[in-house]
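Entry type: protein chain
Record version: 2
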Amino acid sequence: MIGNDWDAILEPEFAKPYFVELKQKVVDDYSRHTCYPPINSVFNAFRLSSYSETKVLILGQDPYHNPGQAMGLAFSVPEGIEIPPSLANIYLELNSDVGCEMPESGDLTKWGKSGVLLLNAILSVRKNQPLSHRDYGWTIFTDHIISLLNEKDTPMVFVLWGAYARSKKSLITNSRHLIIENVHPSPLSSYRGFFRAKPFTKINDFLKRTNQTPIDFCLRRN
């Protein structure tokens, strides 16, 4: 159980044969190998941001596969874990864009509680084996999530960073929504236009234009 309106919305999806098979594959792999995030955190993004309260989707691809990093939120790592390079670049852009202090923690829970669904397209991974759960069926499920959000009457923002996330643009057909797309914040691509693109200003300008409360993206320092 997720614990909010996602439960009722996703109940039919959870009953579909592909999801029953997916669940069994994931449980089996967790029982035999070290997998991430902790199994009770796989749906963490949904617990923090209900369907009705989601105003922004930031889409990642795969959970972190190194020990202690994945927490069920795209790009986020728990308090006390070294900030990964892509998240460090997101923080640099956050500082440049809206003037937030550079956070000391990589925990993005505050964003999740503010209506930002930090969704990976694949929700689990085996230790040190990126994309190892790619063929389990997770992308069928998360494509459905994107389609459900696309159906919302309330305008929202879809943030697609990198080629993989941008490949999901075809699922976002509702003209009332805003799509922000760019290169991935990875050090390998961030220099090609990620910096100075001002995504956080664009998100909040759109929310204000559509009579919604903007998001405070600044993260409190310790």
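Comment: The mean pLDDT is 97.
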